[in-house]
């Protein structure tokens, strides 16, 4: 499977933002925290001696006990702030950090990095208190970088999602690739369903009202039947169903999470 052609461009963006920034906020998805940590970003930050903080966004989509467990684990390496752009969780903690940084009597730039769709723009808008960054459930909606003023001497640098060296399939499972752009949406939706069935099988029934099968393809078929997605002739439209499941994952409509 072809790796995204954009990865070289994205890596160069990461390097550019890292070189411009004094502090890095790496935004990750609380549902799949370890899968949305970007090893390239973290390695580059470490090599350049940048202060790194992980903003674990979307904590409203996971149980509090799960979020705290993940925070404790990641904090063995990097400080973590639990955040929900939707519910304003963690906003005060970040504001306190920014206040502290603003006392350094020099211009401070904070680079905000992370995979597409982890909610970087939502975090920025919440901190600014108004919409200054593009938000969309479509991964990759931020185009180019922009500076956002948070204090007289503290600025955030909003950036496009950093995808680095991964295959479309891996990005799709992270919710970082638009389903319509996938060559094999059915295959990838089956992999996602298999993962959900392993980690939190009740999420399928909660989201679609169907009992999952041991066979992910059969589960996908049951979901299509329940949604009444049909092709001419009455067969289940499996392609449309697969894309719907992948979009539901991107939008946070499937309540599954794992370490």
Provide tags for this entry.
10 helices; alpha/beta; Rossmann fold; elongated; 259 residues; single chain; 42% helix
Return the domain count.
2
Poorly predicted runs: none
Task: Please state the average pLDDT score.
Answer: 89
- Assigned CATH class of the largest domain: Alpha Beta
InterPro entries: G_CP_dom, GTP-bd, GTP-bd_ortho_bundle_sf, GTPase_MTG1, P-loop_NTPase, TRAFAC_YlqF/YawG_RiboMat
Organism: Persephonella marina (strain DSM 14350 / EX-H1)
GO molecular function, one term: GTP binding
Protein name: Ribosome biogenesis GTPase A
How does the SSE layout of this entry go?
Layout: H1 7-20, E1 23-29, H2 39-47, E2 51-57, H3 64-74, E3 80-82, H4 91-102, E4 108-113, H5 120-128, E5 146-151, E6 154-158, H6 168-173, H7 185-199, H8 202-208, H9 216-227, H10 238-251
Parallel strand pairs: 1-2, 1-4, 2-3, 4-6
Antiparallel strand pairs: 5-6
Domain CP-type G: 8-165
Keywords: Cytoplasm, GTP-binding, Nucleotide-binding
Protein name: Ribosome biogenesis GTPase A
